[in-house]
Amino acid sequence: MCPKSKERDTNDKKQDSWIRKVAELEALVKEKTQREETYLNQLKYARADLENLQKNTERRIDEGVTKEKERLIMQILLVAEELDLAVEEVRKVTDTNILEAIEMVKRKLWNILHSEGLCPIESLGKTFDPHLHEAVLEIETSEHPEGTVIEEVKKGYLIKEKLLKPSMVKVASNTSSHVKGNINE
After folding, report:
1. Which domain-ending residue is among 92, 116, 140?
2. Cross-strand bridge partners of residue 173
């Protein structure tokens, strides 16, 4: 055997060994990279889940607070309305000291309700809206257009543009429009 041939065999073996080691290292790097990508994806999903949970929790807390606030305002509103009735009755008796005291309390109570976002629904003379009004009676008349609120039986309220209590109203009904509607059909 030739010395150069031994050297070639040794070099070939070394080269094969190096190639195998490089291939092993490349496989390890690839495996580690895939594992890192898997962990990174899991971390991204976990982070997104946490953010969604935080948003959902905040939304549910806000809804709960709003619901309880509406419940409390509704209870106070009943007292305020009864106070309005009491003021009307006292006006009939006309004891001015009592009337002034009650009106002062009434104003304070209504100011609190308004500061919390409560506002009355203006219904009189407006077109009937089933989202804001509850019709308690239809009155046949030719003095008002069809579907116009002609009397407010009980005031309705919105809280921050959301219906809290619908207005109870009487609505105009024109018999002539009903007859015309039947003729045209």
Report:
1. 116
2. 140
Residue matched to tokens 């790097």? 29
3 and 94 part of one domain: yes
User: Count of domains in the chain?
Assistant: 2
| Domain with 73 in it | 1-116
Integer Cα distance of 134 and 128 in angstroms: 9
Closest CA to 116 of 59, 77, 60: 77
Rg for the chain, CA atoms, rounded: 40
pLDDT in tens, 150-179: 999 999 999 988 999 999 999 999 865 444
Whether 42 has a pLDDT exceeding 90, the answer reads: yes
pLDDT at 3: 56
CA 151 – CA 35 distance, rounded (Å): 73
- What average pLDDT does range 21-31 have in this prediction? 93
